[in-house]
């Protein structure tokens, strides 16, 4: 998910270069009409497009305004291009806005009944309880009465939901495999029951024909047995027919129950496949970090010149690291010192006073902070102080050594330059990993 917009009013350049994580230049002025997509703070574009438009819709729409190939471009490239169109405005942003309005016209009409922010929040909370989030999210973000606080609140709720979904992805993958196996087993069972139902139906038809033929034979012959015996035989045949009908009804009911369960399992399988795609995107980021850490570890056993190239960007640099974990921070400080740099660690206010953070920023070449090990208040204060002092800052995906080494490796390879005028964009998206 993109950087949480808990401070939307900004006038300075931000540290993110990726399109889906690029903040807006200023707070949009409140108007008494529905906000257009391009008018929303650019913090919100990533969450709106990622939540409210499917990948299939974006693959049809985005290539009309970009050079991407709809068949060969990855889902992440399509998503980033859509966010760039929304930030840039123009025909692409208008087409995205039109697609959102057409898809969620019912939700927009329902939310039009809200005449103040409290009524708008009540409708949003009802949508959260029912789980119908994408229509409600677009209706809230574009509503005429949606203030900055209302949009922040809706974004925060969506932000926390994405954390819950990410934590459940691994269990969902295992469950998907089990459900597919169970689905195959249920399909085989359904085929066997359908064959049994056809067999019982044939037996019932044969019994009915046999009873009918016997009745015709008895009617054609002279009475050789007493009426009581004939009535008893007819009763036995009638009971046999009724028993066959009961068994047929039982198997028919079981077959319908199995069919309904198969449909439910197929729906769950589709949902799990979608979550698998998001997990695979996160896996690519983790693999890149592991590869960078492995290169740095292997370089530790080589000549000094090789070790220097592994983290050469740190040489002569003064880095301020906010947040993280004590064990990892000690290792990061040693790694930076070995490369000829200096790493100043601040825990974000747990034991170190937050007032000391501003004193540590002068002469710093960059400020880094792991988004999974820093509170929102410290992160917002850090951004304001960095902008005030003109110091570039960048988020790291986690507080692990791998995230730090991967970031430094990209800078050392010349992928990005860290400077106050053009801070290094992070390849990590706070929504998609």
Q: In words, what does this structure look like?
A:
The chain has 433 residues and is mainly alpha-helical. It has three domains: 19-168, no CATH class; 170-281; 304-412, Ribokinase (UDP-N-acetylmuramoyl-L-alanine:D-glutamate ligase). The protein contains 14 helices and four strands. It has helices at 43-52, 55-61, 75-88, 90-103, 105-111, 117-130, 133-141, 148-220, 227-299, 304-310, 326-338, 355-360, 376-389, 401-412, and strands at 318-322, 342-346, 366-370, 393-396. The chain has a four-stranded parallel sheet with strand order 2-1-3-4, sandwiched between helices. Strand 3, helix 13 (376-389) and strand 4 form a beta-alpha-beta unit.
Structure characteristics:
433 residues; UDP-N-acetylmuramoyl-L-alanine:D-glutamate ligase; 3 domains; disordered C terminus; mainly alpha; 63% helix
Outline, from the CA principal axes?
A: elongated
**Count of β-strands:** 4
Poorly predicted regions: 1-31, 415-433
Q: How far apart are the first and last residues' alpha carbons, in Å?
A: 7 Å
Number of domains: 3
Provide mean pLDDT, rounded. 78
Question: What is the number of helices?
Answer: 14
Classification by helices and strands: mainly alpha
Radius of gyration equals 33 Å
Major sheet description: 4 strands, parallel
Q: What is the chain-wise order of helices and strands?
A: HHHHHHHHHHEHEHEHEH
């Amino acid at each position: 998910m993109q950087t949480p917009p808990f401070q939307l009013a900004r006038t300075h350049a931000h540290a993110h270069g990726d399109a889906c994580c690029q903040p807006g230049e200023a707070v949009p002025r409140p108007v008494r009409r529905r906000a257009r997509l391009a008018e929303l703070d650019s913090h919100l574009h990533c969450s709106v497009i990622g939540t409210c438009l499917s990948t299939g819709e974006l693959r049809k729409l985005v290539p009309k305004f970009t050079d991407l190939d709809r068949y060969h471009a990855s889902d992440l490239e399509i998503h980033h291009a859509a966010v760039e169109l929304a930030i840039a405005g123009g025909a692409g942003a208008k087409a995205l806005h039109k697609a959102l309005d057409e898809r969620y016209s019912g939700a927009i009409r329902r939310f039009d009944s809200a005449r103040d922010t409290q009524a708008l929040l009540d409708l949003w909370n009802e949508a959260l309880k029912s789980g119908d989030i994408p229509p409600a999210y677009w209706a809230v973000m574009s509503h005429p009465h949606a203030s900055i606080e209302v949009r922040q609140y809706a974004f925060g709720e969506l932000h926390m939901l994405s954390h819950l979904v990410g934590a459940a992805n691994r269990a969902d993958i295992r469950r998907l495999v089990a459900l597919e196996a169970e689905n195959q087993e249920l399909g085989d069972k359904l085929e066997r029951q359908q064959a049994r139902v056809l067999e019982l139906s044939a037996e019932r038809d044969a019994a009915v024909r046999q009873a009918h033929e016997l009745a015709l034979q008895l009617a054609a012959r002279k009475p050789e047995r007493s009426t009581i015996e004939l009535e008893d035989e007819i009763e036995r045949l009638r009971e046999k027919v009724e028993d066959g009908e009961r068994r047929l009804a039982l198997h028919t009911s079981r077959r319908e129950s199995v069919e309904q369960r198969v449909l439910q399992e197929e729906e769950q399988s589709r949902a799990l496949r979608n979550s698998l795609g998001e997990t695979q995107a996160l896996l690519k980021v983790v693999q890149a970090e592991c590869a960078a850490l492995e290169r740095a570890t292997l370089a530790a056993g080589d000549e000094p010149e090789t070790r220097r190239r592994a983290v050469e960007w740190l040489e002569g640099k003064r880095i301020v690291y906010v947040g993280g974990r004590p064990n990892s921070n000690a290792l990061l400080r040693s790694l930076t010192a070995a490369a000829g740099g200096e790493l100043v660690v601040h825990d974000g206010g747990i034991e170190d006073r937050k007032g000391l953070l501003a004193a540590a920023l002068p002469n710093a070449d960059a400020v880094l902070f792991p988004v999974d090990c820093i509170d929102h208040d410290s992160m917002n204060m850090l951004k304001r102080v960095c902008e005030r002092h003109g110091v570039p800052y960048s988020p790291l995906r986690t507080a692990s050594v791998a995230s730090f080494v991967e970031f430094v490796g990209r800078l050392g390879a010349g992928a990005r330059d860290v400077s106050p005028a053009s801070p290094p964009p992070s390849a990590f998206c706070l929504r998609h990993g």
